[in-house]
Amino acid sequence: MAYQLVQLAKNFPNVKFIMGHTGGDVWFDCLEIVKPYSNIYVEPCSSYADRDKLRLSIDTVGLERVLFGSDFTLINPAFVIGMVEGGNLTKKEKNAVYFENAIKLLKGGNDA
Amino acid sequence: MAQWMREYFDFSVMLGKPTVVFLDNWLDIDKLKQEMEQFNIKNSLVYHSYSKDYDAFFGNRYLIEEINGQTNLYPCWTLLPFDISPLNNPQDLYEDFKKYNIRSVRLFPEYHNFLLEGEIFSILRSHPNLRLVLVELTYHNSRNLFPLLKDYPNVSIELSGYIPFLGIEGIYKRFRAERMFFGSDLPLKSPGATIFYIDSRVAINDKNSQNSRVFCKYSSYLSYSYLGNIYGLSTCPIS
């Protein structure tokens, strides 16, 4: 799936893509695959609270490309918030993930 | 970390290096202590990776050596059916339980390739003081979980994987807090996720703090019961 997304990102460089769940179970590999493509964002929600998922997402693709998603109403949003809160992120990083990155993305800023 | 104000008893922790390590996620005693301090976890029930991945008999004893002197860590042994684990005969195991103060055991029927379905129901019926705690649940389990909790008062759940929207509320309304345990599933999962999930539900639903029994430091009063070829948990204060 990650390679298909990369192909889309290459073909449509002006379109921004969000990789839901950061690719799922293979999220670590997916981070590396999408890393070079600045029009691919990652959203780390999961029913499995992988340790270090937030930290590694930020460190791999950059803070501005990590978005918050909860998978609500399937999953309780507090669970994913707890992943962020317990993820050894700075206050600035949390603000960006929780809110600011999405605002920039949806308002058209933060161009790739 | 200041935001984790409540004290927790972590019901599900694996100590030691597993056969397959992902992102260096494994815990020795020092790393576990750091995690517990960060998340205000005061006590943990731990099993050893060697007992799961290598050999239950060896790993169980290795666990006792590893946590020797750690008063906030409680051992959880891994058991196999006796017919595939001949080194553990029932009487010897029972004596070891007493000797090492083992009050809980963990079974990995899928990972260790033995069947538990069917037999477990008759055991639960015939041993009402046995406390069975289901771990590694997911939201997929809801449809079967609620009838199970209704029919078997001695069944409880550990919450690290059971995270559906309104999941805790649903169980709390029907079965109360006594049927839920906080577990992090360290080192694989982040404790913060389950802690924040539980705490947020408490803040919304339970101002009288009845639900605090889910995760307070006394939540895991465990004892053991001998059941022939399966050991389990039963409620009894830890001495």
Oligomer: heterodimer
Q: What strand order characterises the main sheet of chain A?
A: 1-2
Number of strands of chain A: 2
Low-pLDDT residue spans of chain A: none
| Average pLDDT metric of chain A | 91
User: How far is the N terminus from the C terminus of chain B?
Assistant: 30 Å
Supply the number of helical segments of chain B: 8
Shape type of chain A: globular
Unreliable parts of chain B: 207-239
> H/E order of the elements of chain B?
EHEHHEEHEHEHEHEHEE
Strand order of the largest sheet of chain B: 1-2-3
Rg from Cα of chain A: 13 Å
Number of helices of chain A: 5
Biggest sheet record of chain B: 3 strands, parallel
Care to describe what's here?
- The complex is a heterodimer of chains A (112) and B (239).
- With 112 residues, chain A is mainly alpha-helical.
- In chain A, 46% of the residues lie in helices and 7% in strands.
- Chain A is globular, with a radius of gyration of 13 Å.
- In chain B, α6 runs parallel beside α7.
- Helix content of chain B is 33%, strand content 18%.
- Chain B has eight helices and ten strands.
- Residues 207-239 of chain B have low confidence and may be disordered.
- The longest helix of chain B is centred in the last third of the chain and has 15 residues, at 191-205.
- With 239 residues, chain B is an alpha/beta fold.
- The relative contact order of chain B is 0.17.
Question: What's this model, at a glance?
Answer:
The complex is a heterodimer of chains A (112) and B (239). Chain A has 112 residues and is mainly α. In chain A, 46% of the residues lie in helices and 7% in strands.
